[in-house]
Amino acid sequence: MSPETAALREWDRFTLRERIGRSAFYILAAIALIWSLRTIEIIPEFLYDAPKQTADLFVRMWPIDWSWYPKVVHEALIETLHTATLGTILAVLLAGLTALLAARNITRSVTLNLIGRFILVATRSVHAMVWALFFVAVFGPGALAGTLAIAVHSIGFTGKLLSEAIEEARPGPIEALTAAGASPLAILLKGYWPQVKPAFLGIAVFRWDINVRESAVLGLVGGGGLGMALDTALSNLYWDQAGLVLYVIFVVVIATEIGVSWLRGKII
User: How far is CA 161 from CA 63, 101, 152, 192, 248, in A?
Assistant: First the structure.
């Protein structure tokens, strides 16, 4: 290539196809934004008044009614922790079985793989609040509905991560056990479990942390726990009691976050 040809050659950061694609994305994003703003009908007056209303709400919550804690909130807090714990245990048990179906290196049947992956997608695609509404309709309001909602919703998240951990297991120990004539159960316990155990425990603890946060608000739809205490305070316009519940939720979430981070560090 001559110097004259090199001087006339132009270098672009993006090709013509890439520029068209980026421009189309920006145009579609702008259309979606404008369409969304028009659809939800945002009233500017409400936005202007929002800071004043928020400040007024916090003023009503102060001072917090601490006397309501031993009467209602303490029992609701214990119920929330039990709901999250039992729901996580059920989810881990069910997700473990589903993960075995979804893991391609354990279950060779394509049909069973599809069934396992369908369960993982179906359970996590429906929000915990929706599951809670369903179980409240079946079993009535209370901690049972919240526990089942937490358990079913957690299957998809826990099972997906666990199946990926199983598929990433090193094949060497598995092949050695197979060559030695080990049974499928022995291969599962001695070959896969030692490799998957740290990820399994880490996933379970992390999911419990998430479930504590979710179970704290499931009571708003009848799932029991702190959410039900908050709904009662809001329905009666007892803002000082609502402030107490929000404060307890905030403290519990921070405490579980610190505890889970420390525990995951020890496990992993």
Answer: 44, 13, 15, 15, 31
* Domain 65-267 CATH superfamily: MetI-like (1.10.3720.10)
d(CA 163, CA 66): 46
- In degrees and rounded to multiples of 5, residue 192 shows phi and psi of -85, -45
Contact criterion met (CB below 8 Å) for 221 and 145: no
Give the 3-state secondary structure of residue 184. Answer: helix
Q: How high is the pLDDT of residue 27?
A: 92
**Residue predicted with more confidence, 55 or 10:** 55
Q: CB under 8 Å to 62, separation ≥6 — which residues?
A: 240, 243
Is residue 244 a contact partner of residue 64, using CB atoms and an 8 Å limit?
yes
Please give the mean pLDDT across all residues of the chain. 78
| Domain spans of the chain, in order of start | 3-59, 65-267
**Of 52, 33, 31, nearest in space to 42 by CA:** 33
Q: How far is CA 11 from the centre of its chain?
A: 45
- Stated pTM of the model: 0.72
Distance of CA 261 to the CA centre of its chain: 16
DSSP string, 76-144: HHHHHHHHHHHHHHHHHHHHHHHHHHH-TTT---HHHHHHHHHHHHHHHHS-HHHHHHHHHHHH-SSHH
Q: Which one, of 97, 104, 120, lies nearest residue 171 by Cα? A: 104
Q: At what angle do helices 193-215 and 239-267 cross, to 10 degrees?
A: 170
**pLDDT (average), residues 53-72:** 72
How far is the C-alpha of 178 from the C-alpha of 172, rounded, in Å?
A: 10
Q: How far apart are CA 217 and CA 104, in angstroms?
A: 37
Tokens matching residue 37: 């703003």
